[in-house]
Amino acid sequence: MSDPMLKVTSLDVAYGRAQVIFGVNLEVPAGALVCVMGRNGVGKTTLLNALMGVLHPSAGKIEFQGENITKVPTYDRVRRGMGYCPQGHETFPQLTVYENLQVTWEAAKGKKGAIDEALDVFPRLKPFLKRRAGFLSGGQQQMLAMARAMVTGPKMLILDEPTEGIQPSIVAEIEEVIERLHKEVGLAILLVEQYVDTAIKLADSFIVLDAGLVAHVGTAADLHDADLVRLLAV
Ligand SMILES: Nc1ncnc2c1ncn2[C@@H]1O[C@H](COP(=O)(O)OP(=O)(O)OP(=O)(O)O)[C@@H](O)[C@H]1O
């Protein structure tokens, strides 16, 4: 079997003396969609920030495409093909939609045509290219945040709760885009998701975190298991 695209081994992450992630193991095979689930505060965002080099693990190893990237800076992880869309659909509110895409594309040394390709994935953004991002709706800002991750030319997308706080009509649209990026474009995707329904619909497999530990690894079929429901109950 070939190496997974992302492999995380025995990862510990702490804020000062407060350890939040304990010995996490995780694999995302090429082209797979893996969901990270768990209640509020179990460490999902902390894990993703460590994967992207925003936080530095106190122990463990992160490998991307067979290379040890544990000490590689964030910008280099992006250039190697890790696209990150952090929680809270953060954009530069004073910049236009197009400028938001352009600054990210320049910083990541994106390929020619990548901005147009990202806009083809999110055609809803096209009428708003000259609008300041701060004036977009929550759903539009989420699409812009994902489009920004796309202009970096990712091989793998890391998405932190992309449907959180978004109106239901747009949630379905965002789910469709994630599904298309997974099934048609063939990107590997690591998705933090709180909603079991969305995870069942989208994920090939998932891990459940509980108090910073991997409490369960499985496929969507396992999600109906009573223990899992308990682990996920908010
Ligand atoms: N900058 C920080 N400094 C200290 N502790 C932090 C910091 N950020 C998060 N924590 C703590 O780490 C733990 C995990 O937080 P994290 O945001 O990773 O959880 P989460 O599973 O992503 O939660 P949510 O679903 O609410 O986003 C929490 O106890 C939180 O209070």
From TrEMBL:
<keyword id="KW-0813">Transport</keyword>
<keyword id="KW-0067">ATP-binding</keyword>
<dbReference type="InterPro" id="IPR027417">
    <property type="entry name" value="P-loop_NTPase"/>
</dbReference>
<dbReference type="InterPro" id="IPR003593">
    <property type="entry name" value="AAA+_ATPase"/>
</dbReference>
<dbReference type="InterPro" id="IPR017780">
    <property type="entry name" value="ABC_transptr_urea_ATP-bd_UrtE"/>
</dbReference>
<dbReference type="InterPro" id="IPR003439">
    <property type="entry name" value="ABC_transporter-like_ATP-bd"/>
</dbReference>
<dbReference type="GO" id="GO:0015658">
    <property type="term" value="F:branched-chain amino acid transmembrane transporter activity"/>
</dbReference>
<feature type="domain" description="ABC transporter">
    <location>
        <begin position="6"/>
        <end position="233"/>
    </location>
</feature>
<dbReference type="InterPro" id="IPR052156">
    <property type="entry name" value="BCAA_Transport_ATP-bd_LivF"/>
</dbReference>
<keyword id="KW-0547">Nucleotide-binding</keyword>
<protein>
    <submittedName>
        <fullName>Urea ABC transporter ATP-binding subunit UrtE</fullName>
    </submittedName>
</protein>
<dbReference type="InterPro" id="IPR017871">
    <property type="entry name" value="ABC_transporter-like_CS"/>
</dbReference>
<dbReference type="GO" id="GO:0005524">
    <property type="term" value="F:ATP binding"/>
</dbReference>
<comment type="similarity">
    <text>Belongs to the ABC transporter superfamily.</text>
</comment>
<dbReference type="Pfam" id="PF00005">
    <property type="entry name" value="ABC_tran"/>
</dbReference>
<dbReference type="GO" id="GO:0015807">
    <property type="term" value="P:L-amino acid transport"/>
</dbReference>
<keyword id="KW-0029">Amino-acid transport</keyword>
<dbReference type="GO" id="GO:0016887">
    <property type="term" value="F:ATP hydrolysis activity"/>
</dbReference>
